[in-house]
C-alpha cells in the first residue's frame, strides 16, 4: 500500500452565491409614511391657527347677546266667540345691542302673536341697522279678527283667563340678521326671539310688567 504524502483533499466545493431579492413596496411605505406625517402636521397647524384666531377675535370683540324686552303692552280687546278672535294689542319692544364693536343689520323681522300656541296675527316691522351700544324700539300693533278653532284645552284656558282679565299671549320674532365688524360682515343668521307675556285687559287694576325675552341663536 502506497502511503499518501500530505493531506488528501477531495474535489473543490464551489462557493455558493447569495442572491438579494429586493423587497416589495419598501420604498412606497417610507414615502407614504412621510406624506401622511406631513399632512397631519399641516392639519394640526391649521387647527391651531384657527383656534388662536377665534380666541383673539373673542378677546377683542367680546360679543354679547342682544337684549330684548317688552316694556309696555296695551290690550283693549280680546274676545272669542263663534270660533272668531277679535283683538287689539299694542306693544313696545326695546332691542339693545350691548356690543362695543359689533353693528347689526336686521334684514327681516316677523313678529307673531299667539294664544297658547294658536297664532292669530303677524306683523313685519321695517328692517334697520343698529350701531354699537344703541337701543331701538319696535311698536308692532296686532289688531283685527281671525277665525281660530281653539282646542278644548285652549278654550278652557281662555275662559279661565277671561274671568281674571289677564291673558297669556306669546310673541315670537323670527329674524334674519348680519353682524358687522369694521368693513367685515357675517353671513345671514336666523335667530328667534321668544317673549312670554301676561297681558291685562285695559280697565283692570293689574298693570303690565316689563318682560325679558329670550334670544335663541
The averaged pLDDT comes out at: 86
> Helix proportion of residues, in percent?
10-25%
The major pleated sheet works out as: 7 strands, antiparallel
Q: Could you give the count of β-strands?
A: 12
**Overall radius of gyration:** 39 Å
Alpha carbon gap, first and last residue: 115 Å
Count, helices? 2
CATH class of the domain at 74-216: Mainly Beta
Instruction: List the secondary-structure elements in sequence, H or E.
Output: HEEEEEEEHEEEEE
**Class per helix and strand makeup:** alpha+beta
CATH architecture of the domain at 74-216: Sandwich
Report the portion of residues in β strands: 35-45%
The low-confidence runs, each spanning 5 or more residues with pLDDT under 50, are: none
CATH fold field value of the domain at 74-216: Immunoglobulin-like
Short description:
The protein has 217 residues and is α+β, with helices and mostly antiparallel strands. It has 2 helices and 12 strands, in the order αβββββββαβββββ.
How would you describe this protein?
The protein is of the alpha+beta class. It has a domain at 74-216: Immunoglobulin-like (Sandwich). Helix content is 23%, strand content 44%. Strands 3, 4, 5, 8, 9, 10 and 12 form a seven-stranded antiparallel sheet that branches. Strands 1, 2, 6, 7 and 11 form a five-stranded antiparallel sheet that branches. Strand 3 (103-115) and strand 4 form a beta hairpin. InterPro entries: LEA_2 (IPR004864), NDR1-like (IPR044839). This is Late embryogenesis abundant protein LEA-2 subgroup domain-containing protein. One of its GO terms (cellular component) is plasma membrane.
Amino acid at each position: 500500500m502506497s502511503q499518501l504524502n500530505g493531506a488528501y483533499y477531495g474535489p473543490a466545493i464551489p462557493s455558493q452565491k447569495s442572491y438579494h431579492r429586493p423587497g416589495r413596496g419598501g420604498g412606497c411605505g417610507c414615502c407614504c409614511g412621510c406624506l401622511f406625517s406631513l399632512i397631519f402636521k399641516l392639519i394640526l397647524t391649521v387647527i391651531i391657527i384657527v383656534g388662536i384666531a377665534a380666541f383673539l377675535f373673542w378677546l377683542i370683540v367680546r360679543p354679547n347677546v342682544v337684549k330684548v324686552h317688552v316694556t309696555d303692552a296695551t290690550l283693549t280687546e280680546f274676545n272669542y266667540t263663534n270660533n272668531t278672535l277679535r283683538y287689539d294689542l299694542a306693544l313696545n319692544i326695546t332691542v339693545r345691542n350691548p356690543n362695543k364693536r359689533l353693528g347689526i343689520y336686521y334684514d327681516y323681522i316677523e313678529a307673531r302673536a299667539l294664544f297658547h300656541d294658536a297664532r292669530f296675527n303677524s306683523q313685519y316691522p321695517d328692517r334697520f341697522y343698529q350701531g354699537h351700544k344703541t337701543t331701538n324700539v319696535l311698536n308692532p300693533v296686532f289688531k283685527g279678527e281671525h277665525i281660530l278653532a281653539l282646542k278644548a284645552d285652549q278654550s278652557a284656558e281662555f275662559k279661565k283667563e277671561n274671568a281674571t282679565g289677564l291673558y297669556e299671549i306669546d310673541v315670537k320674532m323670527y329674524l334674519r340678521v348680519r353682524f358687522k365688524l369694521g368693513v367685515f360682515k357675517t353671513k345671514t343668521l336666523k335667530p328667534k326671539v321668544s317673549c312670554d307675556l301676561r297681558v291685562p285687559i285695559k280697565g283692570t287694576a293689574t298693570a303690565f310688567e316689563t318682560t325679558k325675552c329670550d334670544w335663541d341663536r
